[in-house]
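not sure who needs this but someone in the group chat was asking about Acyl-CoA dehydrogenase from Zestomonas carbonaria so here u go. i didnt clean anything up, its just raw.
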Amino acid sequence: MQRIHFETEHDMFRDAFRSFLQKEVVPHQEAWEEAGVVDRAVWEKAGEMGFLLPWADEEYGGAGLKDFRYEQIMCEELAHINEPGFMIPLHSALCGPYIAEYGSAEQKARLLPGIIRGETILAVAMTEPSAGSDLAGMRTTAVDKGDHWLLNGSKVFISNGYLADVVIVAAKTDPANKHAMGLFLVERGMEGFERGKNLKKLGMKSQDTAELFFNNVKVPKENLLGDAKAGFFYLMNMLAQERLTNACGAVAGAEAALNTTVDYVKERKAFDRPIAHFQNTRFKLAEMRTQIDVAQVFVDRCVMDHNQRKLTPEVAAEAKLFTTELLCKVVDEGVQLHGGWGYMWEYPICKMYANARIQRIFAGTSEIMKEIISRGMKL
Ligand SMILES: Cc1cc2nc3c(=O)[nH]c(=O)nc-3n(C[C@H](O)[C@H](O)[C@H](O)COP(=O)(O)OP(=O)(O)OC[C@H]3O[C@@H](n4cnc5c(N)ncnc54)[C@H](O)[C@@H]3O)c2cc1C
């Protein structure tokens, strides 16, 4: 289905980003997979080209493009080349906005230029070994010591965990109130801030996902984001945009999985005919085509609503739930239609299958999305 969602300037941006990926990312994907992390240099190259935080104000080095379609295009193109490790969306659409939205003038002036240039890589650390879905159950604490905050605790599964220069860390700030949380900007080199191992995962092999440890880290007062007790509210507020980002990538990932499967079934023969000619193959592909088209229209509408600040947490949760479940269904059917070759790492569908599975879990599981949606129904 033809999309009527983008203007000429978006098409130009897409072309430029696509060329950048072909030149600076695609040739390195295998090496990054082996290394378990992308090369730092690619972040700076992306910064030079203006692909990091394009929405940021010009005074900090941004392009002032306050239109989520640009973020959407980057999510889509990264999904099309099946690159899960170079997490521009995490840096640009998830972490950067915390600083722009809740940071002080001093924090923005100090940090945003390096973040936009790709010299300062970002991560956000909420999840702990014993608290993921239930964020209020986190144990990391920050105690006000007058001239600094004393941070203690640990985080797990943190994307960009190795590369990050600044980590936005959520910590409890009032033992009497489980929802009182602050967001702290913890910087590379702070005493007591340590990284654990780069965790081995089912997929997303080029993404550095790490444990982080905070042992009596003295966080300067000027590294608190906004109000020391409002962090939980900030997190909830930003999760709608994070979930929309997931949805943009998931529907594009489903499209990419469908494309590679269509190519394969036209070539592969069984019983003297292309497997594309079996009714089962055609019906499966027709179902996928239909569901992806329907999902795309919904996601595009969510993006436009978000541009007008009208996207609700419930609808963002619907978008994430539907598209990530769809993605997992499409990659699974795609592997099936590839037969044994679909299980081989050298085939794109195999990596897509492995990379997709986390989408139903991170940024809030499908079950949590259903909780949010049903809460909005006031049952
Ligand atoms: C590769 C990867 C990258 C990640 N990146 C980051 C990151 O950068 N920053 C970060 O902070 N976190 C990150 N995470 C963590 C991720 O967001 C959590 O894993 C996720 O929120 C689920 O939390 P959990 O793993 O503790 O599962 P749990 O909360 O223990 O959930 C286990 C199961 O119980 C179900 N469940 C829990 N509560 C309910 C309920 N109320 N009703 C019904 N079912 C329920 C869940 O849906 C799930 O099926 C990442 C995780 C991975 C694997």
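also Residues 231-267 form the longest helix (37 residues). if thats useful
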